[in-house]
Amino acid sequence: MILPSWFPARSDGAPGLRLLSREPGSSEDSTEVTAAATTPDAEWLSVNRGGSFAMGTIDRCPRRKYHSLLTVREPGVGEPLNMVAEVEEWFDVGADEEIALHSYDWGSTVEPTGVDYLTRFEPLPRWTYQFAGLTVTRELWLEDDADAVWIRYSIEGLQKPVDLRLRPLIRCRPIHKLTFANSFMNGEIEVEQGDSLRVVMHPYKNVPPLIASMHGASSRFHADGHWYEGVHYEWERARGYDDAEDLFTPGEFRLRLEHDGAFCIRLGTTRATSHEPQVLSSVLAPHRSFVRELEDAADAYLVELDGGRTGVIAGYPWFGEWSRDTLIALPGLCLARDEVGKALDILESLASRLENGLVPNIPQSGDVPSNGEAIDASLLFIRATSLVSKRTRSQRIAPLQEACLDLIESIAAGADSRVRIDAQGFLFVEQGPWALTWMDALVDGHAVTPRQGYAVDLNALWLSGLLSALRWAKKLRPEFIETWSETAKKLSDHFEEKFWLHDQGFLTDTHNGHHGDGKLRPNQLWALVLPGVPIQKERKQRALRAVRDKLLTPVGMRTLSPDDPDYRPFYRGAQTERDRAYHQGTVWPWLLGLYADAVAAVEGSEAAKEEMMPALAALSAHLRTEGCIGQIGEVFDGDAPHRPGGTPAQAWSVSEVLRVAKMAGP
């Protein structure tokens, strides 16, 4: 499967871009191409090694409060800090005419409309504009080892001098908040002239400074600090959130362009260590395989955080480190890419931050508190350790296996008072206003998808984890075997009896102690693929058929059968409406990994490869043309045409699709 080159807009000059791609299955030498449309509101993403990022739309009209040229992952205080909103370009092309290349939504109108001059976009990201005989190329990247963004301009076609004004607009506010004109903003600047012109700001107390510098061109800075009031964000309004804020500008860099050339502006929390741009990315190479594109996408999520620890960002733009997401993503992000050392780093980092003996859902980060609403995170840690154990003989694995034994004993000791082990060894979640599995949406204090009692995925992970722990305990802790071997046997003897629905022909999602809920959900896939979970082969085949018939879509697995009265076909609207649909039919791409494993286990690896090809083709088109270009989003609508939604760049979506793509082969 071959990914595309990017090509210019239509020859008629109308807004909108086309990319040309080879048909799936064609050779790299083939000259046959097909047109695939993308839209100016598609997003792009650029990140650095520390998880700081820039994100926006192709047409440069911000539609989210998260769109920015620099969001600092770890500013040293509070949540990630959205610092730089935009750098405006104003070209004076003569005859009292100015050309602007950016855009804002003012609520009733969008202006300026720089997209009118956009002729080409490439996901470096790189924009090419043409106007007044000029070709202007704008490239953007983040410095890998510093919280700084570089923007490089290349100018061609100058026939006479042109004046250019570059105006930074800043926010310097927590990532999930909005900011408004206020007296606390410190608009004072320090101008430093050396190898480059630098402007230093200290916008607010206790937040990093912002340093803007020009490289490769002479300029001067004109200070005229003021606020832009009433910038609107269309997608925040659609999601039911406040959608307008104010942006501050300290002034503008003024340049006189007299000949063709290139120069850069850098904005960051530290001074540049070199006058030369520190380029992170390279030009997008044509004809890359889908696997290679997914591997590149995966690099965005593996980050090096404060304290030298390796972590996983669950999704861009609004997620941070989430243990559950990390552990589901780890096989694809690390093991499928032969990054066993990074997998060990991640597990060690999580093991060092247990809370009350368990893996928290969100580990504490700086002064941001943790969140412990995830009993499955501890079970997924055991599963991830088991997978890593099969790939390494490193001495580092034994302490992680020890940690798994401790997790099991902590669960048994009631580390989470809402979870207990019954007489047959099953995990039972007490009824209450909580949601402790990945189906975690709450509305008005009530779980939208109640998974209390006996959840099939929790108990499959629990049984498989117990069996792994018993093997490790032979060397590490022999007394553990005496305590837990009988529990594992009883659980194994009664597992199928507890969850199998004879009439329906699949595994119930939850069981309240008297009967199963009868809902057809994808969580039963864990029981079909995890080692040691005893389901008869014929029953596995029946369950797989039921899942295939009702849950499989071209872009992932539905979370509930469309035949169920609780099924919600669309993921959209305000947060409450979205939460009610989140796990009630909404499609999740990451579940394709479990499904492919189940097909391989039940019907063979060749059957899995063949069945996954249509989904991989659909998701490669998604990666190229919609959402965040070069990434895979969090969810899709349950009903066709399966419109994408949620986080536009999601770690476990990329990682599990990557794992499936590698399973399917070239």
Overall mean confidence score, pLDDT: 92
Task: Give the strand content.
Answer: 25-35%
Query: What is CATH's topology name of the domain at 50-268?
Result: Beta-galactosidase, Chain A, domain 5
Q: Which CATH architecture of the domain at 50-268 is right?
A: Distorted Sandwich
Supply the number of helical segments. 14
Molecular shape: elongated
Main pleated sheet: 8 strands, antiparallel
Question: What is the CATH domain class of the domain at 50-268?
Answer: Mainly Beta
Notable features of this structure?
14 helices, 666 residues, alpha+beta, single chain, disordered N terminus, eight-stranded antiparallel beta sheet
Task: Tell me what you see in this structure.
The chain has 666 residues and is α+β, with helices and mostly antiparallel strands. Among the domains are: 1-38, no CATH class; 50-268, Beta-galactosidase, Chain A, domain 5, CATH 2.70.98. It is 28% helix and 28% strand. Strands 4, 5, 6, 7, 8, 15, 19 and 20 form an eight-stranded antiparallel beta sheet that branches. An eight-stranded antiparallel beta sheet has the order 11-12-13-14-21-18-17-16, with no helix packed on it. Strands 1-2-3 form a three-stranded antiparallel beta sheet, covered by helices on one side. Helix 3 packs antiparallel against helix 4. It is elongated, with a radius of gyration of 26 Å.
